[in-house]
Every structure is written in C-alpha cells, then in structure tokens.
Amino acid sequence: LGFEPISAAVLALLANTAPVAFGSIGIPVVTLGLLTAPIIGHSANDQTQVTLALSAMVGRQLPIFSIIIPGFLIVVLAGWNRMVEVLPAVLTAGVVFAVVQFLVSNFIGPELTDVLAALVSMAAVALLLRVWKPKTLWGFAADRAPLPGAVPRFRSVGAAVAQVADPPARIVRAYLMYVILVVVILIGQMGNLPFFSGSPPGNVKNALHTPANVTADFKCGQPAYALCPSPWIGPSPTKDASAFKFPFWRFQWPGSYEGTSAKPKALISQEPPIVTKETAYPITFTWDFLAAAGSLVLFASIAAFIVMAIRGAPISLFFTTYGRTLRQLALPIMTIAFILGIAAVMNFSGMTSTLALLMAKTGAVFPFFSAVIGALGVFLTGSDTASNTLFGPMQAFTAKQIVIGGHHLNPILTAGTNSSGGVMGKMISPQNLSVGAAGVNRVGAEGEIFRRTIGYSLLLTAAVGIVAMIEVYLIPGIIPTFG
Fold first, then answer.
1. At how many degrees (to 10) do helices 23-40 and 293-310 cross?
2. Residues 6+ apart with CB under 8 A from 382
3. Is the dihedral of CA 377, 381, 384, 387 positive or negative?
4. Which of 26, 262, 347, 478 lies 20 to 30 A from 333 at CA?
5. pLDDT of res. 96
6. Cα–Cα distance measured from residue 196 to residue 76, given in angstroms and rounded to the nearest whole number
C-alpha cells in the first residue's frame, strides 16, 4: 500500500490500543471477571455479574480514547493540518466506534463490543464518503508525481490495489461471516440480556417467564457436583420460574474441600487484614460449555462453513483449517494455561494479597497506579489477558484495603483500570515489537519501533490513570456497583 515499513508498524501498534480490552471476543474482560469474582462478589458463582460490571467499567473509560486514536494516527502519519482536512472522517470513525463500544459493553457484554463497534464504524465512514470527500488527496512519496527527469526509488502498489473492486456478492459473503458471529454470540449471551434474564441478570422477579421466555424453566447443574446428563424442565412455570440460563458444569475443586458433598467445607480461607475476619475462599470450577466465548466462536465457524459448503467449499477445508489453526495456537494456548495456573497459585496462596497490602500504601493515588500496573503487566507479557490474570486480583484486593471518604475504593474501578491501562502498554511489549517488525519485514528494527512508541505509550497510560482519578473523585456515580 506504499507505507514506509517502520511507520506502518508504529501506526499498527498505536491503533492496537483502545479496542484491545474487548479483543478476542472479550476474553481479557471475561478472564478478569473469572479471577476477580470471588473477590468482588460473594463467590465464584457471581462471575457473570462481576464480568458485566467490569465490562461496563472498561466501557466507561476506553471510549474516550476510541474518539482520540483515529485523529492521533493521522497526526503521527501526516501532521496536524492533514488531520484537520479529514476531520469529518476522523470524527465519524472515532465517535461511532466509541458510542457502539460504550453501548455494547454496558448493555450486552464484552464479547461483541469490538466486533459490532468495528462493523458499525466502517459502515458509517463508508456512508460518509458517499456524501463527502476531502478537498485534497494525500499520498505517500512513492505515489506522488516525480520531478522532471527524476527516477522513482520504488514503485508503490497502493494506486493499483485501489483500482481492484470486488463484486457486491463477494463483499456480502465476506461480511456474512461477521453477521453469523454476531448472531451466534447474541444467542449465547441471552442469559445476560435484561430482556430475558431480568435486571440485574439472574433476577427472576424481573425476568420474562413462560411462555414469553420459553426456556425460563430450563434447569441444569443440580446438585453442583454433577455434569447434569439430562437437563429438564421445571415442574411448574408459576412455582418454579427462573431466568434464562444455558446448562453448565460447576464443581468444587478436588482436594480443596472436606466433609460430605451435601455440606462441603473449604480448606482455604482468607485471613485479616485482607478481610475483617476469617472467611472461606472456595475453589470452584465452572465450565460454561455452551455459552463460553470459545464455544460460541466454534459454533459460529461451523455455521459459517455450512454457508461456504453450500457455495461449493469442500468439507475437508474445514478440518484442514481447524487443524492449521490449532497448530498455530498451540504455543499461545499452553502459555495462557500456564499463566492462568500461576495466577491461581498466587491468588490462593496469599501472594496476591501480600502484593495488595504493599500497593495499598499508595493510598488515594492508587487509581492512577492501577493504569500503570496494567500497562506494566502487558509490557511484560504482551497480552492484556495475561496482565489481567496476573494483576487483576491484586488490583481488586488492594481496592478493598484503601478507604476514601469513609468508603472502600471500588474494586471494579481498579480491576477495570488494570485492563484499560494495560492496552496502552501493548505497543512497547517486546513480543508485540517483534511481531510488528516481522510483519513489515524489518526484523531487527524493534529498537527503532520502541523509540518511536515509548513516548506515546507513557502519555496514553498516564491519560488512563487520570481518567480513573477523575472517575473516583469527581464523578463516582459513573463507577458500576455490584450487588
């Protein structure tokens, strides 16, 4: 496309900020909710509600940066004056993305936030360009007409690529894959939507009941130790109504309990000063095998392939692609599994609590440092999910040790800020620098890319910290509450 390679890598790293917390169908926020549910909520059973609260919190911080980032990219690439020339497109892309990001993260959940925001933003810019065009066209040096007698050093392919147009049917099929993904995830999130599940989710008093909610009495997972081989319908829609919930498998982790299955007693407990009195800290494993984000993506891919098969794609293509994807993700899967294991050991051994007691000494300015800690975590691991895994529980524990205005600091704010601040450290992570350099065929240029992004990373991380401080001290009502 004619981009100077290092500039292309820098721009890609800068752009990979505001959407990251909801990337991979919301996995960073979902993981954060999984690990902080026993801390923020009453037990691991509160994972859904805690995840939705964290999604709302992050969705009340990052949209500010979603508005800024498009213009910021143009300024970095071509300067302030060029950005002003295309301000309508910049504002359309940023504001539409931010509005959808806020609405989806607050009222649906983290899984679809980036997908819907990106699709709606692209559609809005496409519609804008039907009625508005920039007065001048800016191009790379290779695209501009050379001086008389001058010989271009290299030929840009940007102009040639721009002349290639796909037929409408091909474009529709390409976007249909995203439509299928959105529909499947929405179905999987029905249990979190107030229309079906009540508000807050799980409140059976406000949930639709049979026949309006035809699955209102779908039961599974009782007792909590069994896999529920045969889900059943409740005995009476009027006497046994419940909010919509997909079947799931939940059990107490072996070796962490004693007593009978009817009255298990957790062997692990939290002690003062982390809590006011000795409190059981149960280890519970929940496998939401139908509504989990990964399961929904698999179901969507199967549905999408059925559409492709109707158009003539061979069946073997699905299994070939699936196998290749597993091979590509083998190392990341193992890495994430080990990181989750480390996080579990840290949480249940007391290491996270010890770190929280130390960080609590920062007192009233801890919300600012929450963003810095998140960015540090992503710098070290290269992943917002990994940063949330390692430091999210510590952020929640620390908040409960800090008293501001007679009340404990809200752990939803600090844990959410860990994720929001973390995305700003991604552009200087060695892992991402290597990927960026390799992607533009400039292996060995990681140092130059780092020098060009470190300033932006520090600036944006500080900005997230300032936003968190403003939310705590000036507009505390913006912080979601749990329970």
1. 160
2. 426, 429, 430, 431, 432
3. negative
4. 347
5. 97
6. 46
Element containing residue 265 per DSSP (H, E): strand 265-266
**Closest to 9 measured CA to CA, from 432, 431, 425, 437:** 437
- C-alpha to C-alpha distance for 368 and 57, rounded to whole angstroms: 15
pLDDT of 224: 44
- The mean pLDDT values, 10 residues at a time, for the chain of 483 residues are 82 90 86 87 75 93 95 91 92 96 91 89 93 81 53 47 68 84 79 63 62 49 46 46 64 77 75 74 76 83 90 90 86 76 79 78 89 88 84 88 84 95 90 79 84 94 96 92 71
Q: Is residue 216 within 8 Å of 208, Cβ to Cβ?
A: yes
Neighbours of 415 (CB within 10 A): 33
Q: Which of 439, 335, 347 is nearest to 395 (CA)?
A: 347
Indicate the pTM of the whole model. 0.73
Return the pLDDT at 152: 46
Residue 122: partners with Cβ closer than 8 Å, 6 or more residues away: none
Take residue 347 and report the two structure tokens written for it: 């949480």
Sign of CA dihedral 21, 27, 28, 29: positive
Do residues 409 and 481 touch, judged by C-beta distance below 8 A? no
Share of the chain above pLDDT 70, in %: 79
Contact criterion met (CB below 8 Å) for 25 and 293? yes
Give me the residue spans of the domains in the chain. 5-141+171-207+243-248+288-478
**Contact criterion met (CB below 8 Å) for 380 and 422:** no
pLDDT of residue 194: 61
* DSSP states of 438-454: HHTT-TT-HHHHHHHHH
Rounded Cα gap, residues 292 and 176, in angstroms? 22
Alpha helices in 350-383 (DSSP H): 351-359, 366-381
Angle between helices 113-131 and 87-107 (to 10 degrees): 150
Query: Going by C-beta distance under 8 Å and a sequence separation of 6 or more, which residues neighbour residue 454?
Result: 428
- Helix, strand or coil for residue 187? helix
- Which pLDDT score is estimated for 131? 92
325 alpha carbon, distance to own chain's centre = 21
Q: Other C-beta atoms within 10 Å of 407: how many?
A: 9
Phi-psi region of 255 (alpha: psi -120 to 50; beta: other; left: phi over 0): left
Rounded Cα–Cα distance for residues 374 and 370 (Å): 6
Interval 447-482: pLDDT, tens:
899 999 999 999 999 999 999 999 999 999 999 887
Q: What is the DSSP letter of 364?
A: G
* Cα 156 from Cα 263, distance rounded (Å): 71
Q: How far apart are CA 39 and CA 397, in angstroms?
A: 7
